[in-house]
Amino acid sequence: MRTASESLAEIRRLIDTHARADLRTPIDGLLLSKVAGGGSPDYSLTDPLLVVMAQGGKRLLIGDEVFEYRAGQCLVVAASLPVTGHYLDTTPEHPSLAMGLVLRPEALSALLLRAPALPRTRTAAGTAAIATGDASPELLDAVARLLHLLASPADAAVLGPLVEQEILWRLLTGPQGDIARQIGLADSALAHVNRAITWMRDNYAVPVRMEDLAQMSGMSVSAFHRQFRTVTAMSPLQFQKRIRLQQARSLLVARSGDIAGVGHRVGYDSPSQFNREYRRLFGAPPGQDAARLRERGEPSFP
Fold it and tell me: Which InterPro entries did the record assign (predicted)?
């Protein structure tokens, strides 16, 4: 097996070779990011995801919590969350290079059913849906082998699922194992809260009642509110506002000029309130911010 530094060098080379503007690759669920500039904040909605940073770094803000990870480290996101990111040590000559792998609950569940009881690992304090830390040599080696398969579609079709399974196993048995396991356990507190998170993300324009969300999660209202904040570092209403505004931002990029219509579509009855809250979050009025985003044209993941 390669050393961690050898694997990391190979991952950098392969991301630089295969990264595309839309992040996608021929392997389903595998994303590659190459970002040359790190000036303005990056806002995104993320699904459960493993990210391995190969070059550069990133600082994430989720609610009031701040997370930072750099080359050779990984990030695990266990829920659908609105995040704000700032790239670190990133220039056109030294771009940020990262790999993302979508974490599917059914894939993690299948491994957990086959595995012996796994020891608990300790993760840093903070939101229960995010963990960062050093990537193990075994994880980096498996990631490098998965990226190698991008050069051979025939090999990727057969070997890709096997290497992805190995990556998930290295994740489950590594320092971030506890948080990854919560994704695959149907009865975990995170899984219960994720039901409400998924509903809110799919129905962001609909007014929410705490009683309905708590019932959806199988909790009392007070327990749901406490667990939701633990998972997301936000209250349910703050979460809904962020989802609405980030969905509005995506719509404005595609529908230039229809600012009032977009605000109404994401759930705002008052155009002035929409403009005010949009500017507070993104630092510019909707039209100006959307034009800036179209000009930048650099999608990314956490």
Answer: Homeodomain-like_sf, HTH_AraC, HTH_AraC-typ_CS, Tscrpt_reg_HTH_AraC_N
